Predict the 3D structure of the following.
Amino acid sequence: MRILAGAFVLLPCLLNGASAQLPKANIFVGYSYLSAEIPNAGSRQNLNGWEGSLEGKILPFIGLVADGSGHYGTTQFFVCPAPPTPGCSSGVNGNFHTALFGPRVSASFAGVRPFAHVLIGQVF
């Protein structure tokens, strides 16, 4: 029992020292809403999804960023020749994914940390 109690007391001290050895990083995960005007659809089309970003610091002001997103939903579009008539629209389930990578530069000014980044990637 003493060994177990000693481990619980010692473990936070060891983890605190180990966390100082890890590089600084930023993580973001959130909801994303995509809305676009599609030609010949007659209205805006909307997709709901997620967005995630991970930044690993190389230097205090330079980091590498990996950003990804996924959007899902049903869009309506016209499948008959112009001009469209009522009942000519059809629903299509859609998926839209992106994967982006690149450098980020940031600096701290009075508690505010603005940043600039250039990301390149692929749409799936």
About this structure: Residues 24-123 form one domain. The radius of gyration is 24 Å.
